[in-house]
Design a protein that fits this description.
Layout (H helix, E strand, L loop, with lengths): L5 H28 L9 H13 L6 E2 L9 H11 L11 H14 L9 H10 L8 H15 L2 H11 L1 E3 L2 E2 L1 H9 L8 H10 L3 H6 L4 H13 L7
Parallel strand pairs: 1-3
Antiparallel strand pairs: 2-3
Length: about 230
Amino acid sequence: MKVIPKSWFWRIVLGAVTLILLYQLWIYLHIVWWIKFNPHSSAFMEDRLEIIQEKKPEAELKHKWVDYGKISPHLKRAIIAAEDARFNDHEGFDWEGIRKAYEKNLKKGKVVAGGSTISQQLAKNLFLSSKRTPWRKGQEAIITVMLEKTLSKRRILEIYLNVIEWGNGVFGAEAAARHYYKTSAANLNSWQAAKLAAMVPNPRFYDDHRNTRFLNRRINNIQRGMPVVEIP
């Protein structure tokens, strides 16, 4: 068996490290750009479009960007209440939420709860594919830190509300409001907002099953938490 000379080994290591650092820089430059400019798509949106077009080549995603001020405050409150109650206070990671999710999953013997924050979910949606790989969680954490250090909470929430999935091929608050209620994201009332927030963990399922008992219970729980939420 041929042994690789030490000089070549370190060149390979240096090359790998350089590529990793360049990739991180590429991500960071995108985030800096998004301080003032809006992302047109996300890695997850592109993945979903590819899957949808396998069956229907002419298919397009339902998606339209709307500015923060044109999204109902009810939806902002509902999303924070449902997905990340400590959004305004943490720096990207809700350690208490992660601990509680771990204990709940351990008790049930399977994954029934997640501790991901809005910032973590946004990091994953913007840059990472839906494929699970060993390095994915680490990369998600790095991107989350970049987002939190570079963008305001208001901007993070604005981008999140515009890129998350809300049904089969439905992305963002405006498309979701049109798809489910034939109205704009600005005109969503409290109950409509709570229902959209309740659908976020499994949007394609709830697109086809819009009135399950569990979904209705979740809507009621979210509505109860919305009045105490402060939005950025």
